[in-house]
Every structure is written in structure tokens, then in C-alpha cells.
Specification:
This protein has about 90 residues and is an all-alpha fold. The protein has helices at about 5-10, 10-45, 65-85.
């Protein structure tokens, strides 16, 4: 496989381009996980398995906004809490 002439002249573009490509993939996966988990939490709240206030639907966006906030908070907090329990850094 041949490299492109641009990569041959400026090799950093390949590295930065690869990083941006993978960042975009991770961002898409994170958004998909967040929306799915929030919808699942809201459904569980409607069924009585979680507090009912999680099932509140935003009047304009028609999404379970409280469940999205809780899932986002847990998505940020849990990696740090787990890594603190194992005495490691969440970035490694």
C-alpha cells in the first residue's frame, strides 16, 4: 500500500488525521450509548423500577432530559470512582 504524497511531505497530517477520525468514532459511540441508556432509564422509571422523576419528557425536544443528565453525570463520575478504587489513572 502506498502512502499519499501529502503524508510523505507532512507526516504529522497522517497522525493528526487518524486521531481526529478515531475521536469522531468515539464521540458517536458515546452519544449512542448516552441516548440509549437514558431511554432505558426513562422506561424503567415509567415501569416503576426507578424514580418517576427520571421519566420527565422535555416539552420542546421530547426527550427524557433528566435521565440524560443522570446518565451523563454517571458516565463522567464512574470511571474516576472505579479507577480510584483500583488506584489507577482513568486515562491509562
Amino acid at each position: 500500500m502506498q502512502s499519499s504524497p501529502i503524508k510523505a511531505q507532512w507526516p504529522i497530517l497522517g497522525t493528526v488525521g487518524d486521531a481526529l477520525y478515531h475521536t469522531r468514532q468515539y464521540r458517536a459511540a458515546t452519544i449512542a450509548f448516552l441516548t440509549t441508556a437514558a431511554a432505558l432509564s426513562a422506561t424503567a422509571a415509567v415501569d416503576g423500577l426507578l424514580p418517576l422523576w427520571l421519566a420527565a419528557i422535555h416539552p420542546h425536544f421530547r426527550s427524557p432530559h433528566r435521565a440524560v443528565l443522570v446518565q451523563g453525570f454517571l458516565g463522567v463520575l464512574l470511571p474516576f470512582a472505579v479507577s480510584a478504587g483500583f488506584h489507577t489513572s482513568p486515562s491509562t
